[in-house]
């Protein structure tokens, strides 16, 4: 039902909007929770609002080719502002809302925005702060008017007032607006997104309507998305992923975009909406899992036992019995199907009753034998009578788990309706991946880039694994360069970097191949792509062995107690690491183990925490040693940092990727200490608070040795 | 400049209206202890009036006099042009005076939403029976009040704890919930007893912002007691300084800051 639903080739986002009004006029297009209630806008209503906003923009004098910066959290009004800007022939430029004024100044200056749409007072303040340096800003609009009364309103307006102005003047602006919409072609610019700037200044990636629409079409068809999907828009609007999901795919497939009430209520809203199509970076899935595990630790014995039993069981059976068979026909269930369901449920209930009764009997017998420690001797098993063949038994067992554990858990997490979930941005831990998949959540990985309009490779249903990023997306060609770097060419390939032809030329060659900067290889046999690391981060150690820090860091980060890890060793004879502990997980662990601490710093320096982290590192070393290519990356010495790595201090990008060079420079003293054999070091670190003020943290950090697994080296010597 | 008639403008550009409450020669004694000694000052509509002073200066007693909880031994309280006599607590609430407490006084077992709803008690008109039966007026009324409460929740950015029992909240948030409950009563005068005590810098800044926004958005007259001088100087339009039950200073923050008596009271002075 999806393919024919995509309609004729619309050339631009505004054209798609008009098409959606025709196709799905009365279906919900946007929802936002306001004052505790979900407010709904249908496609028809949204289109009216967007047109009015566009006319309001015209009344302010928005010209073709203008840039309109949009800074704020995910709200329908901000998405509308982007589409309204496109209608006027202008280019929307969404910005990261947690950027400090300095970073914002660069982007605003670079794109030459004449108009800025701000979410709230905080964002307006930042714009006002940089306004004396950037003279081209003509008008500022804001969506939330609290605290805005005392501002100078000669060049500032509430966005709703602009919309009202557009409505009032619709006779004057309608003709001009229709003319401008008609001028839009597949080649006109759809959006400009700034890269997070892992290295150097952010670059403005220009994406055309063709890029966005064709990519969205291909991916919608790939995952059979329809107009009845619900997505939760909570990721930064400045990120290409959010643009593709909440505007590109939403417009193409005609599904509903739900905006949370505030960033803090995201988990509650997720639960209330129950998205069917969900996207999250690994970090979100990690946090969810950590929370589940922490709460399970506090649960009663019965619940804990059942959780453990069924999660263990689902690891092997989840892929077979758990995956949602989505895209069921939307026709009413026939009598036969109803019978089948009834039969299955009856059999399932019979099976679980049988199991439970037998286990109760078993427990009673064990209790008689071992009155004091029956828990130790009791093991729950399947039914003795064994009336069912093994696959049917597994099926029933899984269904029992679904009824008792998986469904309630998915419901609590807000993932019960998920048909397709994606994770990308970084590698996800195999345990985390397995956890969600075994519960019956169709979590898949994709590999993408801003420059590719997200999709480069993705995993088709039924071929999902934790260690690959899938096969090339439809319409995308991928090749591996000589140095192992991944190149791609696709309809989604960006037009250019704004005002930066040199970078454009160095990234995209004449034939349209784009270098990703990541090193990877195609797995023989399956054709799946595996990413090792950033191509420039993959280095050589002093003795010529391969050094892939990200590979090791990811393995470390899969432990819930490790939030971040930074591995050093390029050009040196051995590897060392900085570790950041996860305060939630380690704090809970400390609570359960009666470890008192007063601060993050104290907890990080606690001997027992060191002990735990060292065990993790030893385990990682053993696993790294398995891989003969990368066995040089074992960690010899490590320390636990006294502060969390933070984007405000420039140590991470806004998308929370580690800035290796900055860290190497800032903590040069610590790195030196890691290599000169000292057992502790005193250090002072400058930190930036959220309001921009600076302070210093002083600490004495201990440095410990980890156990290096010997196998691989012996193996290698033997091989030579 | 601020003492001339109605509708004057403060330095920050906020408008301050006519006198809302006037305290004339207030003295408060508890047996032999004189808590407040002959103090007079006024509170104007729409201003943020701070009362500061060292420990034991009589600030909280003063706030209790304003709220009508204590009846002054001598002196008069004039509120909106009328002299005020002894009152029952519900009368105070109906007059439009709401307050927060130095040590939080919320219902721990109830959710944030319910706690804030209690603030609207005096504004509800349906009878006990109707409310118990959930019939007719009561149901419609609740919707209306819930809407107001949701606006306040949105305003104070506590949407994420709407349904959390107050007992589970950290201190800073409890303070914010208390402010929300006081605001829900749509008060003429909002009394804040040390709204920022025990908070960290970030929470203090948030609270400051909320107090300013409340004053700005709802035009609520605010009287606050606070120890943090930085906060007081930033927030308030006018400051009363007390020491040992006496008033030793009154005026805009800058004026008070340079007052020698105030400096002595805070820094201590050698009593010869």
From TrEMBL, chain A:
<dbReference type="InterPro" id="IPR020845">
    <property type="entry name" value="AMP-binding_CS"/>
</dbReference>
<dbReference type="Pfam" id="PF00501">
    <property type="entry name" value="AMP-binding"/>
</dbReference>
<feature type="domain" description="AMP-dependent synthetase/ligase">
    <location>
        <begin position="20"/>
        <end position="497"/>
    </location>
</feature>
<protein>
    <submittedName>
        <fullName>Long-chain acyl-CoA synthetase</fullName>
    </submittedName>
</protein>
<keyword id="KW-0436">Ligase</keyword>
<dbReference type="GO" id="GO:0004467">
    <property type="term" value="F:long-chain fatty acid-CoA ligase activity"/>
</dbReference>
<dbReference type="Pfam" id="PF23562">
    <property type="entry name" value="AMP-binding_C_3"/>
</dbReference>
<keyword id="KW-0276">Fatty acid metabolism</keyword>
<dbReference type="InterPro" id="IPR042099">
    <property type="entry name" value="ANL_N_sf"/>
</dbReference>
<dbReference type="InterPro" id="IPR000873">
    <property type="entry name" value="AMP-dep_synth/lig_dom"/>
</dbReference>
<keyword id="KW-0443">Lipid metabolism</keyword>
<dbReference type="GO" id="GO:0016020">
    <property type="term" value="C:membrane"/>
</dbReference>
TrEMBL record, chain B:
<dbReference type="InterPro" id="IPR003439">
    <property type="entry name" value="ABC_transporter-like_ATP-bd"/>
</dbReference>
<protein>
    <submittedName>
        <fullName>Amino acid/amide ABC transporter ATP-binding protein 1 (HAAT family)</fullName>
    </submittedName>
</protein>
<dbReference type="Pfam" id="PF00005">
    <property type="entry name" value="ABC_tran"/>
</dbReference>
<dbReference type="Pfam" id="PF12399">
    <property type="entry name" value="BCA_ABC_TP_C"/>
</dbReference>
<feature type="domain" description="ABC transporter">
    <location>
        <begin position="21"/>
        <end position="269"/>
    </location>
</feature>
<dbReference type="GO" id="GO:0005524">
    <property type="term" value="F:ATP binding"/>
</dbReference>
<dbReference type="InterPro" id="IPR003593">
    <property type="entry name" value="AAA+_ATPase"/>
</dbReference>
<keyword id="KW-0813">Transport</keyword>
<dbReference type="InterPro" id="IPR027417">
    <property type="entry name" value="P-loop_NTPase"/>
</dbReference>
<keyword id="KW-0547">Nucleotide-binding</keyword>
<dbReference type="GO" id="GO:0005886">
    <property type="term" value="C:plasma membrane"/>
</dbReference>
<dbReference type="GO" id="GO:0016887">
    <property type="term" value="F:ATP hydrolysis activity"/>
</dbReference>
<dbReference type="InterPro" id="IPR051120">
    <property type="entry name" value="ABC_AA/LPS_Transport"/>
</dbReference>
<dbReference type="InterPro" id="IPR032823">
    <property type="entry name" value="BCA_ABC_TP_C"/>
</dbReference>
<keyword id="KW-0067">ATP-binding</keyword>
